[in-house]
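User: Hello, can you help with two protein structures?

Assistant: Certainly.
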Amino acid sequence: MRWSQAFIPTLRDDPADAEAISHKLLVRAGYIRQLSSGIYSLLPLGFRVCAKITAIVRREMEAIGGQEFRLPAIHPAEIWQRSGRWEGMGDEMFRLVDRRGADMALGMTHEEVFATIAGELRSYKQLPQIWYQIQTKFRDEPRPKSGVLRVREFTMKDSYSLDVQREGLDFAFQRHFEAYRKIFARCGLDAIAVEASSGSMGGSESIEFMVGSDAGEDWIAVCRSCGYAGNIEKASSGIAPVEDGPGQVAPEKFATPGVRTIEDLVGFPGGAAADRQIKTLVYIVDGETVLVLLRGDHALVEQKLADGLGAGELRPATEDEIRGALGAGAGSLGAVGVSNCRIVADLALHERRNMTTGANEDDHHVRGVDVARDIAVALWLDLREVKAGEPCPMCDAPLVVEKTIEIGHIFKLGTKYSEVFDANILDENGKSQTIVMGSYGIGIERTMAAVVERRNDSSGIQWPLSIAPFEVVITVVKPKDVETSEAGNALYDALVAEGVEVLLDDRDERPGVKFKDADLIGVPFRITVGPKGIAQGEVDFIRRSNGETQTMELVKAARRIAETIFEERSMGPQA
């Protein structure tokens, strides 16, 4: 491709609304353009990168036996209603009504559609199967941001494993896990696999693949010692033992005028330290009022609560609902003696004594609370948010908490969808068995952006060779100089003949502009062809990532450069 004929609209300045590095650079380097909030066009360079990511995904999916489908992006409401997700997906689902008055939706994901097709399978002899597609998805994000990291329309590879038994699902899950590691490594990403919540997808187990970045919106806890990693929505940690002493014979109520928060009680005369308080939160879970108890210095992870209760709908109670259930306002709430609400407590409160909590009377608290004696806990769960420095649950080394981008997610769905859509087969004994499913997703544009987040410098993007839009850019310093122009064109033709992907910068621009543009768009190698070098029969070959420069004989340059490219292709990117 000749730059003079290409559409590569580079910009000098960052877009005014961009905060993420990938957003700034992908716009400035001419890879993407925003059409409206959360909706982006892929320009030719962006399309080439995504096409290469897609090709890597296809090769690894086919390596584990995946068969590619192409399913509709518009779905009838009926299949989502059958699975129970028509309402569960809430406002993030794009919904419309067709001319016949039928409710429709733009597909956020395709579990329902694939489960419907799986209903055509009849015998265990047809399993296992791995089905996949690379398809456009739609989500009405409430706050699109960070360029293509959080958008309303995006491309996803979603695959689905179909097996007779759960052991088969375990095997398919592991094969996808390994395939994902290869995919991300080939894209030049050091992805971290973390335990995660399955959320609205359902199922028994899920793993996210994360990449560290300040532009991310997911926090993970990682152990640098043993490799344990978990999304904050799922992660656990050790907790230091607390010596409570013998405690009191019974709880003692005392007045706490003006005390409304944990911090207020810490500073109140005769109050209690935060780690000796019981925080009481009131939630409405599938229509039921539930009291949620945590230690005063711990924060609730709502997803842990939802997962632990198997909740379809969960929200904090309103002020009126709180007062109606407990007779007091927030700041004076507790669970001592409460029998009209289900009580769920965090494990850190187990067998604690000498605790202080609200008395369910405005401006009053009770001290000397023995949790086992005084509170009728119905269910113990791990509900608290992990903090940096707490001990790893596997090896006790301190955990690190960092911000990340999710680039892939794999789920063990079990029979959640196959049961609903009657996807059954006959086993070897002629008995009907429900197909066991797994679901596995990778965001294509998000992977592109994640690479930019991890591979950039003050001059622009640093693509790994495997997904770069071009492998080499030839910068002709003075294209109006006949000898220089001819040398650049000859080198271009020779490299193309060798099978190298080349961009020839033949524009009539100042050399500085060309060098800056080449660095900005991030092509891994640059060849500088100028009058001085040509006069000596030489060209410069520069590596984008570190500026390493080799001077080569012009007559041998094409072969030597091609050999370098082929060697690096075979080695793969170093994540």
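That covers the first. Now for the second protein you mentioned:
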Amino acid sequence: MVLQFDELLPMIQSDQTHHKVDESVAISVFKTNINQEQSTMEFIYSQLFMECLLQIEIDLSDRTQLISFCREIYKDNKIQLNSIEEFEQTYSSNQALSWYIRDTFLSKILNKALCMQNIDILLLFRFFLLDIRQQLEQNQYPSSVRLYRSLLISNEELQIWKDSIGGFVSINTFFSTKFNRQLALSDFDYSTLPDNLQRVLFEIDADPRLNNIKPFSTINSSEILMMSGSIFRLSNIHLNDDHLWIIQMKLCSTHDESLQSIFNSMKKTLGYDNKEQMNISTFGNILWKMNKLDEAEKYYLSLINLLPNNHLSIADVYYNLGHIYSDKNDYDSSLKWYNKSLEIWMKIFKSNNPDLANTYNAIATNYWKKNDYKQAFDSFNKALEIFKQAYDEDHITVAMCLNNMGTVSSNENNYSKALNYYLNALPLFQKHLSNNHPNLGSLHCNISTIYKHLNQIDLALEHLQLALKIYEKSLPKEHPNIIMMLKNIAFLYEQKEDYQQAIIYYEKLSKVYHQTSTATDPIVIQNEEKIQYLLSLIDKKHSVS
């Protein structure tokens, strides 16, 4: 297994004089009073990241890869190599916390990987994370408590905290705190600080009686460790008389009303609603839907190295990698992974299994994007035959295949063949889709394009106008599809020398442009000039007659 530790290695090796006051703390922020989609996505991602990591069912009882990885990082550090040897020989799950608080390779690598949210490394640490969480839960601190933590942070980091007052902060690393304020302050070295750093003291109120909070527990007589991913409501930040920034916050639950709605909405969007849906592909799918393609790729490639070749989910992993590379426009790599999944599924599925058809459909789409229309058509045709066997002749999946085969035939300039597929798909779309479904509009648009190529302008106009009616009822007025329909209809009327009708649609186009563009925009000016030109042609006709 090849792991990505080039970035991690210098960070760990340079951390030989590490103190808690200057350790890295990674955070994600959710500001309830500001609609910032990116920061909200990052906040949700940080929570789902740990949730999925701790729930996916991967047997990592064999820790050989973690041990090998750690030995490679510390190959020149005899002290740490001795600790690795001890860990390999003696570790058990009830020792997780004691190993974490020791100044060894485990906490150093784990904390850096958590800061970087390095998926492949954290997969190797999954058993250790699970053991820590279990120990924290078993030894959950029993009562409400105020905790303290001193930290040195940069001016830029301090500003992020200031900007987040009233919102929520997820601390994505383990967070050690102290019972005693003075003991926490004693961690500071009061020599002169660089201008870019600030002393900060966290004052944290934590109540274990709240539902659905991350666990926290004592790790010695003076300290409590809070689980990675703990969420806090940030209530206040101020500078005291000792030039110390005080950050006051409260441990809170994901059941908090302000958080619950955003979590539920995001989980629904990502297709992840409850624990029963969790499998090893869930997290990769979440990354994919969040458009974190590089992270999703890394996750699935890590799974290939971790899972045995005969694992039931390996074909799903291959298939999902096909999706990732397709979205990255790497169609050759996408085809490789789709075909690897197909090879497995053909051995275990019946010949009429819809999953086979879906894979052929994905393969065909990649060939189409590569302009390899013959291979695309053949694969769509294989998908079509399977869908017919699995369902029936008038199923919506059959209609989608017919439409796709029509598109490929059109790309090959075989317009009669394309028209036949489109017209066979049309009654199936009309049966299964609502009258105003955009896909039905797209099919009418495809049919109109073929009729235009066949020089049957009246039929082309008929289907363009049907498409326009559908789009106007299902899409915003300024949607590109509506603009395209208006342009095409106006142009065809112009070709027919029906200038009055052409002007009607150019004027409709003008109304849309005036809502989305300025009067001086070239596209607005060009459209107005077209209207004036057609008016002049009408006048010329009238004068001749």
